[in-house]
Amino acid sequence: MLWYCLGKSIDEYDDVDGKLWQKLVSIMNLTMNEGGGGYFHGRNNLSYGVDIAKIRWMGVLQRISIGYLFASILEIWFANDYPVDSSKAFIRRYFFQALAGILIGLSYLILVYGLYVPDWFFEISSLNVESRSPVSGYGSSTQTVNCGVRGSLEPPCNVVGLIDRLLLGEKHLYQRPVYRRTKECSVNSPDYGPPPSNAPGWCLAPFDPEGILSSLMAAITCLVGLHFGHILVHVQDHLQRVIFWSVFSVFLTLAGYVLELAGVPLSKPLYTLSYMFITAGVSGLLLVVLYYIVDVKCFQKPMILFQWMGMNALILYALAACDLFSGALQGFYWYSPENNLVDITERFIQAAFNSKKWGTLVFVMLEILFWGLVAGFLHAKKVYIKL
């Protein structure tokens, strides 16, 4: 949980400005070389190099950079120096940070529900053409999406996608968006699959789930984590920490569900306000549970795997979640690309469980265990890779 550590880690820097920009540049540099946007081939995609005309500018690591930049600037330049000896003093010291988060949230709502989304068109990406079955209605390589609405949160006509198309360009967005798994776009919904015969044209439209507007909302999540870190720094009593975190987390969770009942849906691709509140609140409650088990009750040994992984979190993310390691292994195969160590292992486990879903779950759990042991080995050798 990167955002929980932010408040404390920034507080410990001496040269905060220099280290802030150094870390941001390092994250962006890693981004340009990870599987989705650089010179290293991705998993199931044995091709090298990057076409600048089609490079995807945004991504998970870029979102982390934006969130880190936002929270760091607020902590370095907008936190007062008032001593914190009461709840009122705490609010006074971090008032401008909370105000910044509120203003960004309000700006998001105003843009999403107030900005007009006109009709638009796009060219079907070669990635989609190669992976889909021929479907009537997709005869042209250019598809028109009829919108002309305000306040829509549906896949083809939302403001989040509009802003990304205007500022980043259609060709620089993610070409295989998650809404290709919806009932309108996949016969195997909620999984990917061939489109039905009456699939709308927007099923093949590009959309970036880590776009500009949604990344600004994700930055508010980092700000929430920053305030959790403030409590960790200023409150020394275990019970008081648990109480403050619990109250804050319950408030965020309830606020998210109230917004959902009011018509703001839970949407990770759009990173809606309700989604941000609920995920931050539930994560906070999980932190309370883990803090009580590990730090208060000192039940630490069963959690040692997570501790190891946290010590090298970002490099493990790059190697595992970004498929750098598995992509490298897939580059070596026997006669055909499908006969590589990664795919053979996954197929073997699926066959052993006689289920693709359960086999995939076990495969992923074994991956987590593997990377936990790798992190433990690095810890034993006192190797900590940081940006």
From TrEMBL:
Keywords on record: Membrane, Transmembrane, Transmembrane helix
Keyword Transmembrane attached: yes
Domain of life: Eukaryota
Keyword Ribonucleoprotein in annotation: no
Spans through the membrane: 94-116, 212-235, 242-259, 271-294, 314-335, 358-378
Protein name, UniProt field: Heparan-alpha-glucosaminide N-acetyltransferase
Origin species: Solanum verrucosum
